[in-house]
């Protein structure tokens, strides 16, 4: 018989999981004001809040940490990472930062002024936050198909070039300091962008002389989907595909906590020396000296190894297969999610599951709380709480989709954990008719409210 698939690694260290009763979870979630960010990790059985900084490092990464050079300036760890970034992305200049949003802060401080427009394909919430905080706007140019969760297309995270060109045509070039292309498109469901779309977005930007910034948190997963789904790339290595993607970029920001498989770190890289010189001062002010930028030497080394290892096909294949397993089980139970399965997560379509909860009562958040109560599984709402209020009208924004994201950390859970998650979803799905009310907000901040929001049950 043909041998079944198995992961390209074995496990050297384990961490115990605490289980709990439903009664305990009812108390804890009430104390946490129905905000899963406020629940303590030991009160969580399977933690799918994020795949950011939560992956397992390899033995080679741990070994590299011992070689970390903690010198304030000119550390050898910096030069090792610089070499890897040049090899993998072909970017000559880079500034380390402590995580992705810090990279956004550094580069947007250099690029943006009040009233500017920064179009993109579903900016991540911190990216949007950094843009709107500077009194600029972040119009969304994602393809409309991304909003139809049941439509199965291979590259559902793409930029709609007509929407983008309309913005370029209707505004003076000086008002558009850059375009942001996010790969994979996290907000739209971890959905990839094809090489064709990356190339065409870059060509359009060049034509209007607008720099292209690639938000690269899950660049390697995106490259995996190009290799496995786009004609002409099956025989190319992940590293070759990544190299091609970044030929089209002028700037990249990255949260290294995802595809760098480290617990903390990020950077901004660019081709222009002049831009690097403008950005430097913000790096020094907010992050640290140019050669460490908020990271320890050991973290720079762990990242150098992580980037190299996670741009190998076998690693990505194991990960994306596991996310797909969850999708396949949900298919078997008839539970709707953003199709096809994404790179880092499954996004349950809460509007299609909890059809009796009004949108004003936060449908996806209601589902998130249900899943926690059911099995101690912690996901994250990607819906109207995350969407914040409109900065001008201060009305709640209700996005087309109300999603519950179940993000799978890299190399952390086994397929048995995945089966538990799917079974918990099934139990909720079977009693969905009885769930008819949600939550109201009792406390919120004006920006990025989902982290600290407090709710009460209606
Ligand atoms: N861009 C994307 C596409 C992201 O997904 C994230 C973070 C960031 C930027 C910001 O990076 O967290 O290192 O400051 N996403 C995490 C998530 C938090 O759970 O999806 P950061």
Explain this structure to me?
With 458 residues, the chain is α/β, with parallel strands linked by helices. It folds into two domains: 22-51 and 313-457, Aspartate Aminotransferase, domain 1, CATH 3.90.1150.10; 59-309, Aspartate Aminotransferase, domain 2. Helix content is 39%, strand content 11%. The chain has a five-stranded mixed β-sheet, sandwiched between helices. A three-stranded antiparallel β-sheet has the order 7-10-9. Strand 3, helix 7 (195-207) and strand 4 (212-215) form a beta-alpha-beta unit. Helix 8 (219-229) packs across helix 9 (238-247). The longest helix is centred in the C-terminal third of the chain and has 21 residues, at 313-333. It is globular, with a radius of gyration of 21 Å. The model has no long low-confidence stretch (mean pLDDT 97). Ligand F0G binds at residues 50, 52, 99-101, 124, 126-127, 182, 186, 215, 217, 255, 257, 266. Ligand F0G binds next to helix 4 and helix 5.
CATH-derived topology of the largest domain? Aspartate Aminotransferase, domain 2
CATH class of the largest domain: Alpha Beta
Element string (H = helix, E = strand): HEHHEHHHEHEHHEEHHHEHHEEEHEE
Overall geometry: globular
C-alpha Rg (nearest Å): 21 Å
Q: What's the count of strands?
A: 12
Quickly give the CATH architecture of the largest domain: 3-Layer(aba) Sandwich
Sketch the major β-sheet: 5 strands, mixed
Structural class category: alpha/beta
Proportion of helical residues: 25-40%
Enumerate the distinct ligands.
ligand F0G
Uncertain runs are: none
End-to-end distance, in Å?
Answer: 56 Å
CATH homologous superfamily title of the largest domain: Type I PLP-dependent aspartate aminotransferase-like (Major domain)
Count of DSSP H/I helices: 15
* Strand content bin: 5-15%
How would you write the strand order of the largest sheet?
2-6-5-4-3
